[in-house]
UniProtKB/TrEMBL annotation:
<feature type="active site">
    <location>
        <position position="264"/>
    </location>
</feature>
<dbReference type="GO" id="GO:0016620">
    <property type="term" value="F:oxidoreductase activity, acting on the aldehyde or oxo group of donors, NAD or NADP as acceptor"/>
</dbReference>
<dbReference type="InterPro" id="IPR016162">
    <property type="entry name" value="Ald_DH_N"/>
</dbReference>
<protein>
    <submittedName>
        <fullName>Betaine-aldehyde dehydrogenase</fullName>
    </submittedName>
</protein>
<dbReference type="Pfam" id="PF00171">
    <property type="entry name" value="Aldedh"/>
</dbReference>
<keyword id="KW-0560">Oxidoreductase</keyword>
<dbReference type="InterPro" id="IPR016160">
    <property type="entry name" value="Ald_DH_CS_CYS"/>
</dbReference>
<dbReference type="InterPro" id="IPR029510">
    <property type="entry name" value="Ald_DH_CS_GLU"/>
</dbReference>
<dbReference type="InterPro" id="IPR015590">
    <property type="entry name" value="Aldehyde_DH_dom"/>
</dbReference>
<feature type="domain" description="Aldehyde dehydrogenase">
    <location>
        <begin position="25"/>
        <end position="483"/>
    </location>
</feature>
<comment type="similarity">
    <text>Belongs to the aldehyde dehydrogenase family.</text>
</comment>
<dbReference type="InterPro" id="IPR016161">
    <property type="entry name" value="Ald_DH/histidinol_DH"/>
</dbReference>
<dbReference type="InterPro" id="IPR016163">
    <property type="entry name" value="Ald_DH_C"/>
</dbReference>
Length: 495
């Protein structure tokens, strides 16, 4: 196995990063580019042994990192952000080659956000403090005792962070940055279909001066090393982004030690288009759902349109979607790239063919394109209780249903086991407020989509997740919150 491979001209280490050293496993797994099926290299295939040494390294590094003054932790996080910005072009080309998402998105949007993740949580850390407050300060029988409460955010310990392949570095750093800021140490397990940028992150963090063992990266198949990480008694937090079935396994494994979990899972989010909406805007929002070839957890894959505008909406949508260019994600003109893996492509096609067999009509698409690409698809004539409406496809496949009024729109929108996000297109602000209040979703977007500020809580309701991350919510998760209550009396040093 080569220790380093060249990907788009960038050298990437194929080994784990444990305790500040590169460590190889005896076995490997192939990393294949979805763009053209090229094998990019053989990656260290972690075993429970490497998983255990990564946790041990994180445990050993924890006391010193937790005791590092906040300002110093923040300085190092900013230095990591500087490193990401310096290597932005390299990260973008490696990520695109590895997972097939658009190069122009990685350059302009995703990688700048990766740097921002570190800067944001570094700055937030410095603003984290809770004013002391008196117990019962406002009178009454228990008043006047003068006790004060002080809330502190104590670092929790080693964290296991497990991430998917659809936005690898972006999703990893949503977790890594707040965990490190909080004073925790980390074992990051990236997805086996897109392992490369996590390895580059380890290099960048080391160059930025992050002490050995504070960030560890273990590569490999989740089924082979997941348990060793998530059932480890020294792990204090597990944050996972991925699918519901994997989350269920992780929750079972974490139960042995009651390790706190944050779970960001799948979705089947609706886009509600009311007749009073700016229809052009609504069509743009709908077409945007093909981004990243539909491999977006938040994607509004169920388009619900009010009856009077359904025909016009479908006509305009079809026209606009026909102008999407599918192809190599490195080309600036490409709008829709490949799907991640032949298995994923088969899964997508299986969903579509079963839907069509059950009576759905493909208004556009409904079939594979050449190579590892799937034609952007819109299905109509779908029943609310059908598989295609209820289950996450994770490909460029949307369904369209109509509704008669607000009540029906809300009923259809809420009628799945998910609750990640919902998008509402309407020209009526009062309706937006009414409908938004009734939707079950971690995020509701009104006349916009995918606008995410790190200050806001992010996560899913129902089976779309457990817990919220972002801003203070991230620190609530990655820290042990402590309240210290002090009496006004009892001091002996009266000076
Ligand atoms: P997945 O659940 O198959 O894998 C995710 C990660 O879990 C990978 O790193 C994998 O190796 C690891 N894993 C697998 N088995 C494991 C086990 N037994 N123990 C521990 N780890 C294990 O998901 P995926 O196919 O990589 O990602 C797609 C899913 O992720 C979709 O459902 C999508 O909606 C969801 N997702 C959610 C969000 C969100 O923020 N809510 C964001 C992106 C993706």
């Amino acid at each position: 196995m080569a220790d380093k491979i060249a990907v788009g001209g960038v050298s990437v280490d194929t080994r784990h990063w444990i305790g500040g050293r590169r460590v190889a496993s005896s076995g490997t797994f192939p990393d294949v580019s979805p763009i053209d099926g090229t094998t990019l290299g053989e990656i260290s295939r972690g075993t429970p042994k490497e998983a255990a040494s990564a946790v041990a390294a994180a445990k050993a590094a924890f006391p010193a990192w937790a005791a590092t003054p906040r300002a110093e932790r923040a300085r190092i996080l900013h230095a990591i952000a500087d490193g990401v910005e310096k290597r932005l072009e390299e990260l973008a080309i490696v990520e695109t080659t590895d997972n097939g998402a658009l190069l122009r998105s990685h350059r302009r949007g995703v990688m700048p956000r990766v740097a921002h993740n570190f800067r944001f949580f570094a700055d937030w850390l410095l603003s984290l403090d809770h004013d002391d407050f008196d117990t019962f300060p406002s009178g009454g029988s228990a008043a006047g005792r003068g006790h004060t409460n002080h809330v502190s955010w104590d670092p929790a310990g080693p964290c296991v962070l497990i991430t998917p392949w659809n936005a690898p570095l972006m999703l990893a750093t949503w977790k890594v940055a707040p965990a490190l800021a909080a004073g925790d140490t980390v074992v990051l397990k990236p997805a086996e279909w897109s392992p490369l940028t996590a390895s580059l992150l380890a290099d960048i963090a080391a160059e930025a001066g992050l002490p050995a063992g504070v960030l560890n990266v273990v590569q490999g198949y989740g089924a082979e090393i997941g348990d060793a990480l998530t059932s480890h008694p020294d792990v204090r937090r597990i944050s996972f982004t991925g699918s519901v079935p994997t989350a269920q396994r992780i929750a079972a494994s974490a139960a042995a030690n009651l390790t706190p979990l944050s779970l960001e899972l799948g979705g089947k989010s609706p886009l509600l288009v009311f007749a009073d909406a700016d229809l052009e805007l609504a069509v743009d929002l709908a077409v945007e759902q093909y981004d990243n070839a539909g491999q977006v957890c938040l994607a509004a894959t169920r388009i619900l349109v009010e009856e009077p505008v359904a025909e016009e909406f479908t006509r305009r949508f079809t026209e606009k979607a026909a102008r999407l260019t599918q192809g190599d994600p490195r080309d600036a003109a490409t709008d829709v790239g490949p799907n991640i893996h032949p298995r994923q492509l088969e899964k997508i096609d299986g969903f579509v063919q079963r839907a069509v067999a059950a009576g759905a009509r493909a208004v556009i698409g409904g079939h594979r394109s050449d190579g590892q690409y799937y034609a952007p698809t819109l299905l109509t004539d779908v029943a609310q209780d059908s598989e295609i409406v209820q289950e996450e496809v994770f490909g460029p496949v949307l369904t369209l249903q109509t509704f008669a009024d607000e009540d029906e729109a809300v009923r259809l929108a809420n009628d799945t086991r998910f609750g990640l996000a919902a998008t509402v297109a309407t020209g009526d602000q009062a309706r937006a407020d009414r409908v938004g209040a009734r939707l079950v979703a971690g995020t509701v977007w009104v006349n916009c989509f995918f606008v995410r500020d790190l200050q806001a809580p992010f996560g899913g309701s129902r089976q779309s997740g457990v817990g919220r991350e972002g801003g203070t919510w991230s620190f609530d998760f990655y820290c042990d919150l402590k309240n210290t209550v002090t009496a006004p009396k009892g001091w002996t040093d009266h000076g």
